[in-house]
Amino acid sequence: MKKLKNKERDSIDFGKSRVEPLFHSIFYPTLLSMVFASLFTVADGIFVGQGVGSNALAAINIVAPLFLITTGIALMFGAGVSVVASIHLSKGNNRAANINITQAFEVATLLITILAVTIYFFRIPFLRLLGCSDALLSLGEQYLIPILPGCIFIIIQIIGTFVIRLDGSPKYAASLEVIPGFLNIFLDWLFVFPLQMGIAGSAIASTISCAAAAGMVIGYMLLNTRTVKMIRLKLTLTSLYLTARNTGYMARSGFSSMLGELAMSMILLTGNYVFMKGLGEDGVAAFSVACYLYPIVFMVNNSVAQSAQPIISFNYGTGNKYRVQRAFRISIRTAAICGVIATTVLTLGAKPLVALFLIEGSKAHEIAIAGLPLFAYSAIFFALNVAIIGYYQAIEQNVRATVYMLLRGLLFLVPAFLLMPAFIFPQGMWLAVPVTECMTLGVILLTKK
Asked: I need a surface site. Which of 74, 236, 279, 428 has the fewest CB within 10 A?
């Protein structure tokens, strides 16, 4: 990989460039990469649904919380180090920023490695904990084992995306999703159809593509960085103490981002439980269609928050309140537009979208057709929630951001899933998420300063 010259890099000045063009210069590459990542996930679901069957889709949906936990840890450290390092860079303290970046990579990778090894040795109890039925247990295990190494690579990929974007290379950061994504689609097709490797083939394809993304991050950090870089950390007691302190601070700064992924995980866990209890494996397969499509909504609106974050954090660090508020207003406007589009597409396009995953005429197909338009109403509320919470996170109001994430990810969500089907069945299962997001937005607006 040849070292990029400065003139070949993206021209980004977080403190002086006009805010709207600056936001767009980050947003469009970020949006492209995240939409591609989501579409690749959708393609994965299509290959499995058409090539293996609805039970395989249900099994992946059972295992999916592991992805969200992994992504949540990566986002916590990635968003956290981006906020902290942005403030350090705004004050000219590049060494402190580089120490934080190195600590984020190393600590997060160590944590997820320990988690992956533990899950491997206790995989059957883990699958049971996720709500896996006897009918899905074998498929769940076939998918879980090959995907565990991929969790380690996901950590490097996601943290690297934040760091590389902060380094002024959003286009390269976008390529971390696009290039491995195309590789994933090809390998998915190859392993599921010609090689007939079933659900395990899909997992192996995902792990290989994540390894490719991690390799791209490592190559950039070693050869192409402009401002940020990895440095060697000492192993003295003092250094270990400072690492623990700094990673704790980064974790607090990025905790609400992790809660965003855990909120998705709770949607899966609670939803799988409710749909399994009410509608069986066909219900979980139908719900999995929404769970495959909803990450597109999540990624689009997460790209809004992530694009605004370095601008807001940098200018918050320099005390430029006008630029902070300008970036926030642009992010809210963009989120609202994205939310309306997502709701419209999922509502009007429910029939063809469901047909991509499930065989027409099957019971799971009928359940999904009826439920997806109801689930789609959550998109507009979700979009605004993510943008507002991202703003509070960027200006280090971590308690406020965390409370709002807890509302939408646990305190409102679980009761809504458990109680609403008792009053309106089966529509209440599909409406639990829209009601949760709407209630959360109401609380945010009532408590804003």
From this structure: 236
Please tell me whether the peptide bond between 426 and the residue prior to it is cis, using omega within 30 degrees of 0.
Answer: yes
* The three-state (H, E, C) secondary structure of 320-385, written as one string: CHHHHHHHHHHHHHHHHHHHHHHHHHHHHCHHHHHHHHCCCCCHHHHHHHHHHHHHCCHHHHHHHH
pLDDT at 248 over 70: yes
Tokens of 434: 């829209």
pLDDT in the model for residue 213: 94
Residues 6+ away with beta carbon under 8 Å from 53: none
| 239 against 187, higher pLDDT | 187
Residues 63, 45: contact at Cβ < 8 Å? no
- Determine if the pTM surpasses 0.70: yes
Tell me how crowded residue 7 is: count the other CB atoms within 10 A of its CB.
Answer: 6
Q: How many helices (H) and strands (E) does the chain have?
A: 15, 0
Dist CA 72 CA 298 (whole Å): 13
Contacts of 69 (CB under 8 A, 6+ apart): 115, 261, 262, 265
Residue length, the chain? 449
Q: 91-100, 189-198, 311-320: which range is least confident on average?
A: 91-100
Q: Confidence class of residue 208 from pLDDT cuts 50, 70 and 90?
A: very high
Beta carbons of 68 and 259 less than 8 angstroms apart: no
- Checking if the pLDDT of 82 tops 70, the result is yes
DSSP state of 395: T
Q: Is a pLDDT exceeding 70 seen at residue 269?
A: yes
192: buried, middle or exposed (CB in 10 Å: 19+, 13-18, 0-12)? buried
**Closest by alpha carbon to 300, among 256, 343, 335?**
335
Residues in CB range of 333: below 8 A, 6 or more apart: none
- Name the residue among 263, 299, 267, 296 with its Cα closest to residue 284: 267
Residue-level pLDDT at 6: 41
More confident residue, 423 or 33: 423
Question: Inter-axis angle of helices 237-318 and 350-357, to 10 degrees?
Answer: 160
Q: Give the whole-angstrom CA distance, residue 414 versus residue 285.
A: 20
User: What pLDDT was estimated at residue 441?
Assistant: 96
